[in-house]
C-alpha cells in the first residue's frame, strides 16, 4: 500500500484492476444521449443511462457480474404539442 500526496491510501496494481472486467471493483459509468428535432414538432429527448457494474462472489471459483442499465428519460414535444415528460424507463440487466 502506498500513500498519495494527500494521505489517501493507494493500492498497487489498482490500474490493472480497473482494466480487468472481472476484478472485484464496483463501477458506475454514465452515458448521456440527446436528440434534437425529434417528432413532428422538432422536440427534444434526453436519456442519461446509469450503468452500475457490481461483481458478486459466489465462491472462490465463481463470480456473477451484474450490469444493470437504468435509463432516465426527459422529453419535450415529441408527439405534437404533448408537453414535457420525465420518467424512469424499464430497467435492463445483463449478467
Features:
95 residues, mainly beta, 6-stranded antiparallel β-sheet, two-stranded antiparallel sheet, 8 strands, 51% strand, elongated
How would you summarize the topology of this molecule?
Blueprint: E1 2-3, E2 9-10, H1 14-19, E3 30-38, E4 43-50, E5 53-57, E6 63-76, E7 84-88, E8 92-94
Give a structural overview.
With 95 residues, this protein is mainly beta. The chain has one domain. Helices cover 6% and strands 51% of the residues. The strands form two sheets. Strands 3, 4, 5, 6, 7 and 8 form a six-stranded antiparallel β-sheet that branches. Strands 1-2 form a two-stranded antiparallel sheet. The longest helix is centred in the N-terminal third of the chain and has 6 residues, at 14-19. Keywords: Plasmid.
| Oligomeric assembly | single chain
Count of DSSP helices?
Answer: 1
Give a short account of the largest sheet.
Answer: 6 strands, antiparallel
| Rg, nearest Å | 20 Å
What general outline do the C-alpha atoms trace? elongated
Secondary-structure class: mainly beta
Distance between the termini: 32 Å
The helix content, as a percent range, equals under 10%
Order of helices and strands: EEHEEEEEE
- Mean pLDDT rating: 75
Q: Into how many domains do the coordinates divide?
A: 1
Uncertain runs = none
- How much of the sequence lies in strands comes to over 45%
**What is the tally of beta strands?**
8
